[in-house]
Amino acid sequence: MIKKRETEHTEDPNMQEPTLLDKRVILESISDGVVVSDVEGRVALFNRAAVGMLGIDVHTAPGQPVRALLEPFPARGPVSVIGMLDRLYADPYTDEQGQEITEAVISVGTQVIRTRLSPVLTEVGEFLGVVTMLRDVTREVEAERARSELVFDVSHELRAPLTAIRGYSEMLLRRTSGRLDEQQEHFLRIIQRNSDRLVALVNDLLDISRVVSSQLELELHPVQLDLIVRDVADMIQPQCDQKGVHLAVDIEPDIGSVLGDLERLTQVVANLASNACRHTPEGGHITFTVSCSDDAVQVEVADTSAGIAPEDQAKIFQRYYRMDMPTLFEVRGTGLELPIAKMLVEMHGGRMWMESELGQGSVFTFVLPLHAEAVREKPIKETKRSEVGRTILVVEDDADTLQLIALQLRQEGFDVLTASRGEEALELAHTPGVALITLDIMLPDITGMDVLRRLKADRETADIPVIVVSVLQPGASVEGTGAADHVTKPFALERLMESIRRTLATVW
Fold first, then answer.
1. By percentage, how much of the chain surpasses pLDDT 90?
2. Angle ∠(357,363,369) on CA atoms, nearest 5
3. How far apart are CA 318 and CA 338, in angstroms?
């Protein structure tokens, strides 16, 4: 048995304590920038790399507040370096949910700098200050942006054929072209199921590219997480029933609201629910728990899956990571659901973590700050048009999708005009009786956004409601453009029809 050696016996009597000069030489040899602030938050030490990155005045910087060095540089993303600094000085001993909460990215001119903050603690836990590490990641960000643009372009090219595949298989299953025998219906459902999987993959790839490149914008409003959890539970209940999994929901009364994007927070809960449902075996249990503290709302999704090994837990939120477990060979997923959920939670200023034990299941938890302010809802302005007809103008550059939408609209009893180019659409919009326009953004001559702006600027067409039916460029939004709604490709036909009916109900 090897005994643990005492400290005094491990010291080399010939080894000298590094001098202050030695420490300075070591510090200057580091390529990353280093700024050390003392217990009062004042600059105590910095190296040459930090001077070059932040433009530090070497004569005036020592002794000034470290906040003054970092405040001029805006954050790239939801996490503020000043906020992290304040948290560390308020409580340097708490970092329970992982190191990600002490890392942020800032812009310094044209450079992108990743900052990493750590408390300086002695062996007995005495707090001495904070070390701020700075790394230039401009090239990495530019490469990531190029990858994101490629992912977006590929995603858009995939969405057009996927829209047609889903739409036409859906119409065949609805027997719009005659009766189907049992084998034909079985084959069509296989087509539909696999096209849905492709749609999920394309959507996940697009979301990852937008989040990583900071091009995903959130539409923030007061949101009730308890209502989201109930809706998601209702959504996955049939899947759990089919699999023989018991689903339970435990929600505390009087859950406060959070400030968030309803669609994206629903995506977070749905991703966690989908992950739990996929991995929980027949006869297992899934439990949603929502609780509220003085300053946060917490959501837990617990399952009775096989659990996650300790070596896998550190990687579970990495993109495309799949655990090497025999029980998971039949579990299909993109490997993106959990990373996307975590990224979206952090974009909302929250935290996500997980706890798991082999054979005992897993618990995924996230918390979001409580929104205490009462926000007055904006009234919905309804626009009425006199003598509205029943003609719908479909503007779409993909011929198969154009034909699919037109066919469905005619079956609904509408008259249909079609255009595959922007200029053609602007001319047809003046046709008497046009009640609504569905508009693709990717057109061969001018963009759909240009078409939309010109429609709204023209007195004769300004009141015609427009539904954007397209994939938007990263960071783009239809909010403030005058569009009545946005239906993302590929879409279910009923989703588009529901949007058209709802929009027309406001003008008829």
1. 24
2. 140
3. 8
